[in-house]
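Input record (Table S2, row 420):
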Amino acid sequence: MAKAKYTTHIGMVDILPGEVEKWRALEAIIHEEAAKFNFEEIRTPILEQTELIVRGVGQLTDIVSKEIFAFKKGDSHYVLRPELTAPVVRSYVQHHLNQRGGSQKLYYIGPMFRAEKPQKGRQRQFHQFGVEIMGSNDPVADVECIAFMMRIYQRIGIENFELKVNSVGDPESREAYKTALRDYLGPNLDKLSEVSQKRFEKNPMRILDSKEAEDQEFIKQAPVIRDFLNEETEEHFENVLAYLDDLSISYTEDPYLVRGMDYYTRTAFELTSPDLGSQDALAGGGRYDLLVEEIGGPSTPAVGFAAGMERLLIACEELDIKLAEPKSVDVYFVSLGDEARKWALTHLPKAREAGISTTMDYMGRSMKAQMKDANRENADYAVIVGSNELAEGKFTLRNMRESEEMSLSFDQIIEKLASR
Ligand code: HAM
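Output record (histidyl-adenosine monophosphate complex):
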C-alpha cells in the first residue's frame, strides 16, 4: 500500500472503528461506577493558560520542563493540558464550586498531552479518567478515591496489580525529611547520576524516583519519610491504611514512592501492573491540600487520582479480556432493482423507529455481492426485496447465523425482530 502523505503526529493515534467500541464500553463502565459513588462529571477545555500548569504542576517537574505542548497566540500563552488536576482546581476556583456546599466529588474522562518519547503504553496524546474530591480533609475521602479506582479494574476483571501507598508529608515534615535526605546523600553526591545531582538541592525527594542504575544502591538505604511525619500527618496516614484494611484493599507501603507533580501533600499512591512492561503505572494520585490556595482559591484540602486508559486497554489485551462484542447490525436490506431499492430506503426508518438497527447497499451491487456485504457487516438477518416480493407484499427474512429463511410481511418482520 502506498504511504499516506498526511499522517498523525508521532505519539498520537487514531482510534478507529473496531477499537472505538472498547473505548465506549470502558467509558460506560466509568460513568456507571461514578454514578454509584455519587461523583459528578466535569469537562474542561483542552487548552489552559501556561501559567496555571506551571504553577499547578510545578516548574521543575518533567512535565513542565520537558513535556508540555505550549504555544502563543496574540498575547496569550496556551498549553495543551498535560493532566487534569490543575485545570479542575482552576475550574473549582473560577466557578466558586465550594459554594455548592459539602465536598465536591468530581470525575472526568478525556485526552491529555505530554511530549514524551513514545513507546508501548506511552503516547503524546493519551487518555485519562480520574477523580478529584475537593473540600475534605478526612482520610475517608482518600480511601473512597482509591476504592473507586480499584472498582473500575475489578469490574473489568483486571486483578493482578500492586497498590503502593506512601505519605509524602506536609510542608513541615517534608522540609525535615529533605534535610535528612541531603545529609544522607551529600557525601556520595558525585556517585549519583547526573539528573539526581541536579535534583539534589531543589528537590532531593525526586531522586527517590530515579530509574538510573547508579542511584539504586543509595535509594535502597535512604532514610524514610515516615520517620519525619508530624503527629497529624502520621495519624492521617495511619487512618488511610486502617480504612484500606477495613475495605480489604491490599497494598504495599512504599516509603520511596514520590509522584511526578509538585502539588502532592500527605497521601500518595500508585497502581502498577506486571502485565504492562516498562510503562507499568496504571494509575496514580494523592492529596494536594495546598493547590487550591496556590491557584488563588480558599484553603481547601483535596485528593484525587488519574488512570491511563490506553494502559488499561493494553492490560485487557494481555489478559484476553473482551470489553466489547464485535460490531453487528440487526438487519441488512438486500434490494434488487430501482423500485426495491426505493422501497428499502423508505422502510429503513420504520425499522429504526422500532429500535432495529438496519442498513442497505449504497453501491448498486448484485444480490450476491449484497449478501456478501451483509456477512461482512455481521448482520443477524437479511431481508431480500425484489419485484416478486414487492408484488406479493411478502419478503424473505434470512437468519444469517443459522441460514434459515421464512417469508413474512414487513410488519411481521418488524414484530419478529423487535421482540428479540
Ligand atoms: P500521572 O501519574 O501523571 O498523574 O498520570 C496518571 C496515569 O496516566 C499514569 O499512571 C498513566 O497510566 C497515565 N499516563 C501518564 N502519562 C502517560 C502517557 N504519556 N501515555 C499514556 N498514559 C500515560 C496525573 O496525571 C495526576 N493528575 C493524577 C492525580 C489526580 N493526582 C491527583 N489527582
